[in-house]
User: What shape does this take?
Amino acid sequence: MKKILFLLVVSLILSSCSDDDEVFEITTIRVNHYKTTTNGFFFGGLGTVLLIEEGNQIGQDNFTHTFNGINGFDYELGFIYDLKVSKTKLANPPEDSSNIRIDLLEIISKMPVSSDTEFNVRLTLNQTDGIFNNWVFVDQDNNYSILNSSIRIDCENLCNELSAKISNQEQLTGVFTHGEDNEYILKEILNE
Assistant: This one.
């Protein structure tokens, strides 16, 4: 039954491609339990991206950004996923986008991480050209989040310190744990 379902998914993906698009690889990737920030070179703005390992790199703890996303994949923070995916080379990719599309074929595993697992996410960046990138958004009700994402930041007793450091345009990385429903809990602020 799994083989039939797999073949059906592959054939649907292949039939949805334009005549010149070509599936060139079926591979396994691991998706990390958190998203990280990016300055958006490939998609036009500050935001967040998935962190992945691929093929024989899985388990090496050497995650890299994927700007493509994964079609058909509903990502949930706090879980490490192993996925079977296909990669398609697009004959006519969208402007300012990758010419590779990644499609989910199968979720091999979905493993929760411990709620006290710490991870680092860049919050601000001073670029060499004088531009200050700030991924922390504070709304009118003083709720913190990561810019252009649905990830809320619970900064606990560090909110005032975080706001002051951002106002001073300091380069910052946050040490976080996972909270509930798309929330990062700020445990420490690292000046870089």
Notes: The first strand starts at residue 22 and ends at 31. The CA atoms of residues 82 and 150 lie 23 Å apart.
